């Protein structure tokens, strides 16, 4: 008796767990072929199998095949966390950092607690800053807006083999849990603020980082940037200010602190550009005017 698609999928999962990625991919392919031949495949079933096969391709370094399978999986069921994470990792391996950044940011819209996506965003931000300079965001493709319905879709069965290592947690779709997360983020930010007042900038960074995992807030980014400035971690300060400006493009603190960090990194042209942007919003900002004078003397 021929194996059923579900049996082939389970066998593929077992091969994946054993590190046999080629045989696992073949089993997922056979399951897909059977489903399509029967004409009974749901979009969810096909998306799961494609995402599983993509995980095999990613493990074997076949990144272009991984991207193709993930893209098809996402056409079938939009905003799936596992296909997005796997495609992001494949894009990253292919050095397509802008596309990887977009996928990691999309994952965080679906579930802001996924550490793999936070780490990916941080890596891509650093890579793009080095590649394209401080205005790297202007070269990004548009980041899709994830509808609320998609944010709860993935609280059901896992879309992938259990052997796939993506560090994905279950989604928090319930309003009371979301509110609790926001409240916890606020508490962590306030604890960070108290540590800053005591001059404990390293410990404050830890609190702000925990807060940002729960809620990406502009003020938390600018607060952490202030700590990084004090710790002379200027690239990290630039990165945080850039994230803050993606949330609030005219934020005065983010523009000023990024200008300070860029000055220390000797990127005087970009620093002056930030101060001039700030002065369009606050023409009489004395700290900004003073910094501009210093920059014009360099």
Distance between the termini: 80 Å
Work out the number of β strands.
0
Question: Which segments are poorly predicted (pLDDT under 50) over 5 or more consecutive residues?
Answer: 152-176
DSSP strand content = under 5%
Structural class by sheet pairing and helices: mainly alpha
Domain module count: 2
Please give the share of residues in helix: over 70%
Q: Average pLDDT across residues? A: 85
Largest sheet: none
What is the overall silhouette?
Answer: elongated
- How do the helices and strands follow one another from N- to C-terminus? HHHHHHHHHHHHHHH
| CATH architecture call of the largest domain | Alpha Horseshoe
Q: What is Rg? A: 23 Å
For this structure, what is the CATH homologous superfamily of the largest domain? Tetratricopeptide repeat domain
Task: List the total number of helices.
Answer: 15
Assign the CATH topology of the largest domain: Serine Threonine Protein Phosphatase 5, Tetratricopeptide repeat
CATH class annotation of the largest domain: Mainly Alpha
């Amino acid at each position: 008796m021929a194996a059923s698609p579900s049996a082939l999928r389970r066998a593929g999962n077992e091969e994946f767990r054993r590190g046999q990625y080629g045989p696992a991919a073949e089993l997922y392919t056979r399951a897909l072929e059977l489903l399509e031949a029967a004409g009974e495949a749901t979009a969810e079933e096909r998306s799961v199998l494609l995402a599983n096969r993509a995980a095999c391709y990613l493990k074997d370094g076949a990144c272009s095949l991984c991207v193709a399978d993930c893209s098809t999986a996402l056409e079938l069921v939009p905003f799936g966390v596992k296909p997005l994470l796997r495609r992001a990792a494949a894009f990253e391996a292919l050095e397509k950092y802008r596309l990887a950044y977009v996928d990691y940011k999309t994952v965080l819209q679906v579930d802001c607690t996924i550490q793999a996506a936070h780490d990916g965003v941080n890596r891509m931000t650093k890579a793009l800053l080095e590649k394209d300079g401080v205005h790297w965001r202007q070269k990004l493709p548009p980041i899709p807006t994830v509808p609320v319905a998609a944010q709860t879709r993935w609280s059901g069965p896992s879309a992938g083999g259990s052997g796939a290592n993506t560090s994905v947690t279950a989604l928090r779709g319930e309003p009371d849990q979301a509110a609790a997360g926001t409240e916890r983020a606020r508490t962590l930010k306030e604890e960070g603020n108290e540590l800053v007042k005591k001059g404990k900038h390293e410990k404050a960074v830890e609190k702000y980082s925990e807060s940002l995992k729960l809620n990406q807030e502009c003020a938390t980014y600018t607060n952490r940037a202030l700590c990084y400035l004090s710790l002379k971690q200027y690239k990290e300060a630039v990165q945080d200010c850039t994230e803050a400006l993606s949330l609030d493009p005219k934020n005065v603190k983010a523009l000023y602190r990024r200008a300070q960090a860029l000055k220390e990194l000797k990127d005087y042209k970009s620093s002056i550009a930030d101060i001039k942007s700030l002065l369009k919003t606050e023409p009489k900002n004395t700290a900004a005017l003073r910094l501009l004078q210093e920059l014009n003397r360099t």
